[in-house]
Amino acid sequence: MIGRLSGKLVAKEPPMVTVDVAGVGYDCMVSMHTFERIGDMGETVVLFTHLIWREDNISLYGFASEAERQVFRDLLKVSGVGAKVALSILSHLSVQDIVNAIQNNQVDILVRVPGIGKKTAERMMLDLRDRLSHNLHFEHATRVHPEAKAATSSSAEAVAALVNLGYKAADANRIVAKFDSTSSTAELIRQALKEFAQ
Predict the structure, then answer these.
(1) Residue 175's domain spans which residues?
(2) 119 within domain boundaries
(3) Helices (H), 43-129
(4) At what angle do helices 66-76 and 95-103 cross, to 10 degrees?
């Protein structure tokens, strides 16, 4: 199973991107939200991936955050929702939009997505209400951001979270660089927020 890719972005044409990892190019289908956030050609990117292996086809899907990948996986468990429809949903709605729609029983939000009828939307409401993790809000905030240039994965995720909280990328990088890069993402975020508060 391929769960994560970290490498150079060498091709980008929606909905496909190609990431070069140690000389091997991995083609990934991505949502438009991920496509817009992944960065520019030649940049180092990180994608959380989901592999679908069938007899006649092997497809790799990539996501800018673990939260988006988790929602994709949850959507695949809904009867009548395949990978193409799940990716379409994530292209039209953010993770937060989906979480809010499910929690507030807003069927009208889901039926705006092409290919999603009222019955499918209602089925999603029933199937996903208990499945969606309460941690999605935090995970979504720690998605990889194109301006995050920290050296390590945990540092990059911490910088991305701070950028998404409204801090400038340069300031976030400067603050996070002060701390031990082997610390967890959550710990780096806590330390950085304390520093910003001073």
Answers:
(1) 145-197
(2) yes
(3) 66-76, 83-92, 95-103, 107-110, 118-128
(4) 50
pTM greater than the 0.85 cutoff: no
Report how far residue 160's alpha carbon sits from residue 189's, in angstroms, rounded to the nearest whole number. Answer: 10
Residue 140 lies in a domain: no
What are 51's two structure tokens? 């592999």
Residue pLDDT, tens place only, 105-158 = 889 999 988 889 999 999 998 888 877 644 354 444 444 444 433 334 677 777
Q: How many folded domains does the chain comprise?
A: 3
Same domain, 13 and 57: yes
Q: What CA–CA distance (Å, rounded) separates 89 from 181?
A: 35
- Is the dihedral angle over the CA atoms 103, 109, 113, 117 positive or is it negative? positive
Query: In sequence order, what DSSP letters do the residues of 145-196 get, joined into one string?
Result: -TT---SSHHHHHHHHHHHHTT--HHHHHHHHTTS-TTS-HHHHHHHHHHHH
Same domain flag for 100 and 56: no
